[in-house]
Amino acid sequence: MLFYPVPACRDNPAETMREVRRPAGRSVGQTGERPELLDIPTSWAEALEAARRPARLLLVGDVDTGKSTLAALLAREAVRAGRRTAVVDGDLGQSSIGPPTTAGLAFVEKPVESLDELPAAALHFVGLTSPINHLLQTVVALGDLVGRAERAGAETILLDTTGMVTGSAGRALKAAKVNLFRPDALIALEHQREIEHILAPYAHRQTPKVIRLKPSAEARPRTSEQRKARRERQFAEYLRPARDIELPLKEVGLEGTGWRTGERLPGHLRSDLETRLETEVWWAERTAEGVFAIVTDAPRAAAIRIARDSYGDVRVARRESLDGLVVGLLDAEGLTLAIGILLAVDLKVHRLRVRAPLADGAAVRAVRLGSMRLRPNGEEIGWNDPGAVG
User: Fold this and answer.
1) Is the pTM of this model over 0.85?
2) Which CATH fold topology does 13-222 show?
3) Using an 8 Å Cβ cutoff, are 372 and 161 in contact?
4) What Å distances lie between residue 111 and 56, 106, 122, CA to CA?
5) Minimal CA–CA distance to 195: which of 170, 161, 176, 222?
6) Best CA proximity match to 356, nearest among 123, 142, 141, 103
7) Quick one: average pLDDT of 26-44?
């Protein structure tokens, strides 16, 4: 990625406050078509100044506090100050850089009004729209993208995080991001100290410096239905140029599953397993962990106990859990080329059929299974539990 020099900003900071724009007719954090003036709290001045210097800035805050709007503003200030600037979007569900289920990296070469304007330079597929059951995968994804930004020469790196800030999981996730990212400043958007449990450990440390900001008065909450509708629009837009790609299972690895890592059960044993489980067994294999089977209908608990009497540990997954599964398509270095939807698994010719915005599958060397399921038009079907597919 090449960076182009940007003249240093010589604006009066007060004027900068008045010049920031947001899309008309939308609240902070939403996108539209026409810009209009946005009032920025004067208390944000310290954060703006931090963005004008080479720095790592980590943004934290509850949902609907305007983190993405603030990130765009800070990126604008950094670019206008002549800094080589990168933004890492860690909001898997309400993403601005790349489709949902991914973390995205973008390089900022000119001032922008919204992160949605930035093309993704790199994606890291996590597989779900919430980090709650994917804490480790989320932290790994962000570490990967921050590392890429550094290697590309970014001087100012902004990490925009998810709104998961409550409970022990939210606390652990944000602490892991601080420990990995090692930010110069922790920029916190909060109404009434609701994220104090995240900020308190850094009160007596030199770094990161904690900068507390009040959300803009124009920040408006969105309902779960509005969030879902936005995700589905993003999926539909991302998948619009998609085509069906055939991937030979002998030429690609499967990530995020133990499926196809064992020895396939011969036909007579699979038939016996069907009898014991009282359901069609579509696939069965013996692994070091026991027998794993993909079945048509969920077996009764009693049937599983009967099967375990003969086969030891038996784990099952419903075939439905593969239908419309969101997957990441990875290249030979493990980089995310695109995300796609699993349409079919043909065990006769040992191929996967995936719909994805790629010209072909020539560069695909691995398929990472996610947990979300979609229809080809981007409509959400549901989610799999962790480990549902082996």
Assistant:
1) yes
2) Rossmann fold (3.40.50)
3) no
4) 18, 13, 20
5) 170
6) 123
7) 51
